[in-house]
Each structure stands twice: as structure tokens, then as C-alpha cells.
């Protein structure tokens, strides 16, 4: 049986005998799989990023544990084998789909590379082919389900390693790099905890807001770099002393230009403060997500040290009583 399986990024739907029931694969949304525990999912092909010059592995692109999947065997000759497990799949449950499923974690991968999700998506090129092997049917060797999943991208050019590492190092030292690193840590800290599912879903919103602030920061910095406020002050002073009948017009607009420069300063400062605020909030989330929060030296009930001390006291009392007889 063939199913149409298409990447959302391609915005295309393949035709097949089952085209009226296409299975949509997305790198942004959870995709359910028609598999039972013990069934195997084969992932073959190459999907690579031109930004990093490296191939993307299925185990990195999808959160296998959250999707009720596990690695059956390491990739061999370009084919990875994943198996449907019997464990709970919190990612499928939170998405409202049956287990197992493919839970994408492209944002995590992008932020590990200090890129936005959109930048990383645009850098992808190549395709994957997914094949489902049913455990009960595999022994009888029937025709296998084949699901071709082309993932469209733009350009596939390997960058020089030194240039890439230098770029990543530079970006890591930027405010938005701090946000991406904090978002990655927050996702790891909250993964698999259903009590933090709502909070975890808000991480992407924080990153989107951070991208907006980063755009404002970069624009403000570039515009300020070409402004010479000293020269503007001299112009305003010169025009204020001018005897031209329209000198006041020039003074007014040079003054307005200086006021806009001051607003650029404020915009730059606000964007930096906003980025630090988001990065700090994400770091706090990663810290507060720990299970052992609010630990005290003494157990609230049945403290073992107190029990030990009581037992020693009873022993001493018994020995003193015995020695007095």
C-alpha cells in the first residue's frame, strides 16, 4: 500500500492510489504513523543543511522518545531503523494524535547551530524515504508500505569549515545567541514532563519575540553607525547663527534628525534589554523545571538523621540505666 507523504515545506501533494487519504509529513507539526509496537520505520536518503555542510539524522530531527519511537539500529548505508515502542508517547498525547508519531525538533537543531528555525529550514536540501515494516507481516515478507517524503530546500553548498565555525562563534557571543542557547536548555529541561507541556509550548513564542527584538537591535545599530551626531550639532549651531530667512527651517529639521538619533539609542537599549529578559526567563525555566526544587537538609517527615539520633539516645539511656544497677 502506498501513501502520499509530503513535506509541508514543499507545499505539494504527491498522487497515488491513496491520494485521497494523504499522510502529511511536517517539520513543524506532529505527524501520526500507522504503526503498532514492534513495527519498524526505515528512513533512507539524505537530508542536509547547506549552512553547516552536514547531514541531518532522523534521531536529531525528531524527538523519538516523545513520539513513542526508539532507535532499533544505528544508520547503516544511509538507512536508519526506528522501532515503535510500548512506552507512553507524551508528544503524541499533547498533539492529540495516536502513538507512535514523529515529533519534530527542528527548532532545537537550529538553535544548536545558532540559527533561527526559518534559516535552518531554508538551508535544507535532499529527501528522505520512509518505509513501514509491520512486525507480524515482515516474517511473511509481503509488499512493504513505501512513503516517499521529499523535503524541499534551496541550494546545497558546503561551506568551508573554518568560516562556518568562525560564524558560529561570532553568533554565539551575540544576545540572540544567548537566547537560542537558553531556549535549547529549556527544551531539554522540560522534555517529557507533561506538567510543563504548556510552558514548553511557550518557548517558541519567546524565541519568535527574540527574533523580532534582534532585528530591531541590528537595524538600530546599523543606522546609528552611519550617524555623526557631532557633525549634526555643528550644523544646527551654524544654521542657528545664519542670517538666512529660512534658517529656522534647517534648524528645525536638523533638531528632528538629532531627536531620531536619540530614539535610535532608546530602541537599541530596549531591544538589548528585551533580549536579555527573554534569555534570563528561559534560563530560569530550565532551572525551575528540576524535580528536586526546594530541598532542605532535614526531611519534613521521618528524617533518617533524627531517627539515628533517637536510637543513639535510647542506647545511651539503656546503658546508663544498666550501669547504675
Q: Can you put this structure into words, describing what you see?
A:
- The chain folds into two domains: 5-156, no CATH class; 194-288.
- The protein is 49% helix and 16% strand.
- The longest helix is centred in the C-terminal third of the chain and has 42 residues, at 247-288.
- Helix 3 (106-112) packs across helix 4 and helix 9 (203-225) packs antiparallel against helix 11 (247-288).
- It is an alpha+beta fold and 325 residues long.
SSE blueprint and pairings:
Elements: E1 5-7, E2 23-25, E3 31-32, E4 40-49, E5 54-55, H1 58-61, E6 69-76, E7 79-84, H2 90-95, E8 101-102, H3 106-112, H4 117-123, E9 124-133, H5 135-138, E10 145-150, H6 161-172, H7 175-190, H8 197-201, H9 203-225, H10 229-241, H11 247-288, H12 304-323
Parallel strand pairs: 1-2
Antiparallel strand pairs: 3-8, 4-5, 4-7, 4-9, 6-7, 9-10
Helix pairs in contact: 3-4, 3-7, 7-9, 7-11, 9-11, 10-11
- How many helices? The count is 12
Structural class: alpha+beta
Could you give the order of the helices and strands? Answer: EEEEEHEEHEHHEHEHHHHHHH
The N- and C-terminal alpha carbons lie at a distance of: 92 Å
Task: Give the biggest sheet.
Answer: 6 strands, antiparallel
What is the arithmetic mean of pLDDT?
Answer: 77
What proportion strand? 15-25%
Shape: flat
Rg calc: 30 Å
**Helical residues, percent:** 40-55%
Counting structural domains, the number is 2
Poorly predicted regions: 1-24, 144-168
Number of strands: 10
